[in-house]
Amino acid sequence: xxxxxxxxIRALEPLKAKLVTVNDYCNKQILAMRAxxxxxxxxxxxxxxxxxxxxxxxxxxxxxxQSEVTKLRKxxxxxxxxxxxERDARKVLIADLNELRYQREDMSLAQSPGIWGEDPVKLTxxxxxxxxxxxxxxxxxxxMKANFGDVVPRRDFEMQEKTNKDLQEQLDSLRDDYKEVCKxxxxxLQLHMNTLKERDQFYSELQEIQRTSTPRPDWTxxxxxxxxxxxRWQLLxxxxxxDQLVDVLLEEIGEGLLQEKDFFSGLGYEExxxxxxxxxxxxxxxxxxxxxxxxxxxxxxKERLTEEQKEKFPDFFFNFLERRxxxxxxxxxxxxxxxxxxxxxxxxxxxxFYALLMGKRSESVYIKQKETIAELLKEMTNVDSQNExxxxxxxxxxVLKSTFPFKKEEKIQELxxxxxxxxxxxxxxxxxxxxxxxxxxxxxxxPFVQKLWEQYLDEKDKYLKELKQxxxxxxxxxxxxxxxxxxxxxxxxxxxxxxxxxxxxQAFQLPVTKLPxxxxxxxxxxxxxxxxxxxxxxxADIRRMGPRExxxxx
Length: 554
Hints:
By secondary structure, the chain is mainly alpha-helical. The protein is 69% helix and 3% strand. The chain has 16 helices and six strands. The strands form three sheets. It has a two-stranded antiparallel sheet. The longest helix is centred in the N-terminal third of the chain and has 110 residues, at 2-111. It is flat, with a radius of gyration of 50 Å. It comes from Hipposideros armiger (Great Himalayan leaf-nosed bat). Keywords: Coiled coil. Residues 41-75, 127-184 form a coiled coil. This is Translin-associated factor X-interacting protein 1 isoform X6.
């Protein structure tokens, strides 16, 4: 039996060890649960304390209101006693006045000589009856005092009743506010918990983004590589973001490669090649400097603005090169200039020429822009009666509003800030308005002219967006000429017939003479994609002729 029990004990030894392990695990679980419960209990206690404080605050407000009601009741009782005293004093005064009047009558009767002729018995009876009436009146007066001594005048009662009603309404309103505050408190607690969860989630996402994101480049490393050293790099990088700095680096690298190239390969005679570059073979790289190219483009612009503009701009440009350098070198200069303006498209005048030569924008856009600048300068000169070249900020604002009547106030403000006005500036501060239109050696305009150009592009995009919304079509949908005409007249009711026809001619690539009149039936509808129409209008000089009917002009 002992051997059997020992064998059983040995068999139970592993179970005992397992029991000890399970006991330790359960103890750890209990301790962990107690720790969690302790944290939750502490949070609940804090919340309980906050709620108790809020309840105490509301109780204090209630006590203060009750004390105010008690004070008002006390004031009411005092006012009642004062009025009661005044009433009693008034009655006593009336009794005294009556007594004095009776005494005066008795004295007048006594002094009157005719009284001695009256019958004494008759006078005695009259006196007795008068005293009886006085006694009866006194009794009635005492009865009235006894019955109505505690009665409040109706006017005072109504005033106190109204005051009590107002206080009751205030108390009810405060109770409702208290309930609302309690509800808002619960909602804020829930929002707070949700905000904490969102904060933790956003923090985790931030950590993940910081771990996986690409570090920002150190642009200061470029100052030792770019020609001209740190000073030139600082001038190139001023006010530019990372994308623009990449363009600057590409231009610097491309300029070096372009100067090393001695020849260009001709692009052939395909339709996709611009007319002034159609050549098969090798052409020489004339290697002009950036300044030479800019001066050459300025001369081309001046000549273009003085002629009648019968030929297309690419043909004019090639003819200009033939007149300047001769037919033999014209193609070489065409390739050399084209490669330069394609590389330096961030330059204002080169970017304009590239867009014109590649057909991405109509030259009427730039001509109209130059006319606008000339008109603005003329208006400023007219306002400058002393011919000193100076304007006050108020005069500048007036000129801008008269020249651009459809611009909103914030757009006028942007132009003034670009011209040098600051919020702390006075309207009497003087400005040299000629400095608003100068260009540097590389053809870059001052911020004022750049802001004018940016606003024009923004206004054009907004105008075309309104046109698309008015048509109610997608870009891949087809649109007819009458629909576009109707939509343009709706969004810009001040459009004259000539301007409207020029817009339609640009959008549908039709001569103005072949456009149908409004209401005229066409043999076949002219249909194009909406995207194509908008892209063609984007190339042309499109601008609003008048304010929309729902928005007044500034």
